[in-house]
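Fold this complex.
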Amino acid sequence: MATTGDAQTLFSLPVNAPSTVTRSSISRRTLFLMGCAVLLLVSMVLSLGFGAVTISPIQVLSILLSRIGIDTGVAFETQQELVLLGIRLPRVILGLLVGAGLSLSGALLQGLFRNPLADPSLVGVSSGSALGAAIMIVLSSSLPGFALSALGVFSVGFAAFVGGLIVTFIVYRIATRGSMTSVATMLLAGIALNALCAAGTGALIVLSDDNQLRDLTFWTLGSLGGATWTTILVILPFVLIALIGGPMLARALNAMLLSESEARHLGIRTQQVKRFVIVLAAMTAGAATAVAGLIGFVGLVVPHLVRLMVGPDHRTVIPASALLGATLLVVADLLARVVMQPSEIPIGILTAIAGAPFFLYLLVRSKHREGLI
Amino acid sequence: MISLHNVAYLIGAKALVSDVSFEVMPGAVTALVGANGAGKSTSLKLMSGQWTPSKGDVRIDGQPVGEIPVDELALRRSVLSQQSALTFGFKVDEVVQLGRTPHGSSAAFDAEIASRAMEIAGVSHLKDRFYPTLSGGEQQRVHLARALAQIWEQPSKGERYLLLDEPTASLDLAHQHAVLETARDCADAGVGVFTILHDLNLAAQYADRIIVLHQGHMIADGSPADVLTPEIILKAYDMPVMVTPHPCASCPMVVPIPGRNRSGEEVAVSAAASVRGDGAGQARGLAPSEPEYPLPVI
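Structure:
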């Protein structure tokens, strides 16, 4: 033990800081985030270009530039422009927002629960959304004029969003005594309420006719097929708030990984952090589910994957999860559209097919980061 | 100065501690000793602001601890807990830098302080290891480095305090002494050090002042020489001991009397007879030949 006997210098400040170690680790973090951003851009360009109508990356750029009045002289057809701006672009942007929202939500909750297996479904967002959607799909036709007229095509999404928030709120209330929320109780209450919601959804499946059953099943597999500029406007504020708020919680979540009481000793207002995380996570995951149905796997695996690659520091995990979650969903949607043309594969199936093998590979390779599983 | 004044903490009708009053002075090491369940950790939680006393008050530099915002409190005192739930794969270096959370200082500055703190806690060689792969004792020392990094600078307001909950619990002999030497160094640098200890000889050697808790009440408070007497130790631990001068340090040394069980009853005919001169057994009126409950089979 290199105990310095000199009491006077024990707490005196070092004058010059030759911190080569820090500088290299900072640049490593920035480099990783930049890599993720490049990956996202590439996947977006690819996804914009492929489909029933092919548009080359240069054409994609020139169509976009022509919209803001810059003529690049690259030739493109009107049909390409219509497809790009009317169908592909909203779809790719929606994929980006949904992927980023689900991954952010997962990253925040895994930090809060100190559990790498936590995801938005844990606090009841998914099961509540599914129940809400099932109620709307199955019961709306039997209740004349029920909500449908006012909300139109958004009625299922709206019901899903409300259902997710209600269930999360109940879970949160059950786990809160006085001014303290028990994270362990939340986990258990979440499991119980998930089972209850699943029972409700199951009962509605029994009541449903063939068409409703088909709608419901496809909804639970997720799709970006409903993408329009309007759906983007619906989800955008939630994802933006999480994108800004998430990184602000990063240092607090790092401290929370030690334990709640240690985080308080480090000056973190833990109850506030818990409330923020739950609200942010439930809102973004709820909004994502409302516009795209249930897309599993992203919220669980993307943050986990990031930690396997760069460690558990939330200052990296949160932004990188958003970028990689967006990438995963954009790529998955591209595959969903082109693999079985002209029909479409539900995206939930593809997020699992694309993500799981890579995740398993990392899992087997990175045994040295013990304690992650 | 951290001061506890007539502090009690109740859970329902059960008092975990009651009528506890003492001070932790900057520049000194204050040790709290007592049997399991005597209320030591409760006292520490009340001092750190984690729990609010049911009666009495806890003040840090004259200010009630509950009224100090947690982020300001974090600049003035750090806490080394007994165990940490950390299972995520942080590197040692990153864990120590978590101690810099309450400070708004630059990353380079924090890294430099962390590396100095790791040197002092003797964990520099572990800095690139993953925390979950360390042994319990190594993890404990990493957290000591984190606690040091947290109170590295003199705060703009008040003094600095280091609260340690059994810092030597999972350490080997050499590291037990090294950690307490570090605590001593901190006190010499002006920090008020408060530590819960089980080993009375470590307390005797490193503390300026020892407080003894027994069933939630204080039964002694004073210098090691005043507090570490066979009578007080018998009362606190239900265990007869001899106290002799330390052969090479100017402090008392506590030696358990061999051949006695916890109630001072003789369990075997042994050399204990020759040292049974302190009257410990008699003090409680126990007849060695009439045990109150079956003796353990040895």
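Chain B has one domain: 2-227.
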